């Protein structure tokens, strides 16, 4: 029956119609129905699923034709059924074209309850204006487009940290540093960090716990760690990496570096890809991306390095400070 029912009956192979679909759509998403939860969990880690419906028994993965073919070949062995999600693929490819043609979103597509990049920055500036004794808004570096893009492609953003503490109480104080939205499509993380900041300054002076926190600690928030990528995500594109145009330059759907695989610590180990069109591309060198370097430098300024030399050495019990990266 192969070939008679569209995609069905391909017996471990990719049909001609499916290959055509990959050629016609820049972004292709596959639905992977699974029978073994352990297999599903491994796939989520390997492919960075855009959606994992463990309860309903399927995953949505953004795949290259090569990865699609590889999974198709192992359908029977892994207890999977791999099929194209044509509606999602066509929607995402259409939105990518719209973005490239200059259609910047005014509100967050699909999730209007979360604030946009510009609304997040406005919220931070408002916090500083209304609570000058508690808040500052520091520039710690550049996005790739701001500082590193070729001149014709330059635009981009500063990376800014919202610094909260009662400066009337002298330090030194231990610091909590939070980064959010490093992966562009993880929209909720920036909103969570922004609301946390608003809660802290709003409750200062009335809530004793919050007052103690800001009197005797510093809370620093990099609310938008990947602002270039976030612009694509706000247009409703399931974007993950930064927007480095020189990584995978021939595909506007797949370019960029996975900032969360680009940190110098343990760079190049399992879970990251050396293929520059991959969604988990680690970049050409440790900390090659300006966003990564800005975060690393800020961490080094924020926290003394007191760990031992071995990989699994714990920090000493009197180490102070805390870093959280929200995903
Ligand atoms: Zn993430």
Question: How many domains make up the 3D coordinates?
Answer: 2
The average pLDDT is: 92
Largest beta sheet: strand ordering: 5-6-8-7-9
Rg calc: 22 Å
Determine the N-to-C terminus distance: 44 Å
The total strand number stands at 9
Number of helices: 11
CATH topology of the largest domain: Aminopeptidase
What's the oligomerization state? single chain
Spell out the helices and strands N to C: HEHEEHHEHHEHEEHHEHHE
Task: Describe this entry's structure for a reader.
The chain is of the alpha+beta class. The chain folds into 2 domains: 16-100, Alpha-Beta Plaits (2-Layer Sandwich), CATH 3.30.70; 117-326, Zn peptidases (Aminopeptidase). The protein has helices at residues 16-24, 37-47, 65-73, 75-78, 86-100, 117-130, 144-147, 187-203, 208-216, 227-234, 290-302; strands spanning 29-34, 51-53, 58-62, 80-84, 135-142, 158-164, 175-180, 218-222, 322-326. It has a 5-stranded mixed sheet, with helices on both faces. A hairpin with a 4-residue loop joins strand 2 and strand 3 (58-62). The termini are far apart. Bound molecules: zinc ion. Residues 183, 186, 260, 327 line the site of zinc ion.
What are the SSEs and their pairings?
Elements: H1 16-24, E1 29-34, H2 37-47, E2 51-53, E3 58-62, H3 65-73, H4 75-78, E4 80-84, H5 86-100, H6 117-130, E5 135-142, H7 144-147, E6 158-164, E7 175-180, H8 187-203, H9 208-216, E8 218-222, H10 227-234, H11 290-302, E9 322-326
Helix pairs in contact: 6-8
The structure holds zinc ion (ZN).
């Amino acid at each position: 029956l192969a070939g008679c029912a569209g995609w069905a009956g391909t017996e471990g192979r990719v049909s001609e119609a499916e290959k055509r679909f990959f050629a016609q759509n820049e972004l292709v998403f596959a639905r992977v129905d699974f029978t073994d939860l352990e297999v599903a969990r491994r796939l989520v880690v390997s492919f960075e699923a855009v959606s994992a419906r463990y309860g309903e028994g399927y995953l949505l993965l953004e795949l290259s034709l090569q990865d699609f073919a590889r999974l198709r070949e192992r359908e029977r062995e892994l207890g999977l059924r791999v099929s194209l999600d044509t509606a999602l693929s066509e929607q995402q490819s259409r939105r990518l074209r719209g973005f490239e043609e200059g259609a910047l979103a005014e509100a967050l597509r699909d999730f209007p309850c979360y604030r946009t990049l510009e609304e997040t920055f406005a919220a931070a500036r408002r916090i500083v204006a209304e609570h000058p004794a508690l808040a500052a808004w520091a520039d710690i570096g550049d996005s790739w487009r701001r500082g590193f893009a070729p001149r014709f492609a330059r635009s981009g953003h500063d990376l800014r940290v919202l610094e909260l503490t009662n400066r009337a109480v002298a330090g030194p104080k231990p610091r909590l540093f939070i980064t959010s939205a490093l992966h562009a499509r993880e929209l909720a993380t920036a909103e969570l960090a922004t609301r946390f900041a608003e809660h802290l300054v709003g409750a200062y002076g009335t809530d004793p716990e919050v007052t103690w926190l800001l009197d005797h600690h510093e809370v620093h928030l990099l609310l938008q760690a990947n602002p270039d990528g976030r612009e694509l995500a706000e247009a409703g594109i399931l974007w993950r990496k930064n927007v480095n145009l020189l990584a995978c330059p021939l595909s506007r759907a797949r370019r960029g570096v996975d900032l969360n695989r680009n940190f110098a610590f343990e760079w190049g180990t399992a879970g990251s890809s050396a293929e520059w069109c991959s969604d988990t591309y680690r970049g050409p060198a440790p900390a090659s991306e300006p966003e990564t370097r800005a975060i690393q430098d800020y961490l080094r300024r924020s926290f003394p390095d007191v760990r031992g030399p071995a990989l699994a050495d714990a920090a000493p019990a009197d180490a102070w400070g805390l870093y959280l990266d929200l995903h």
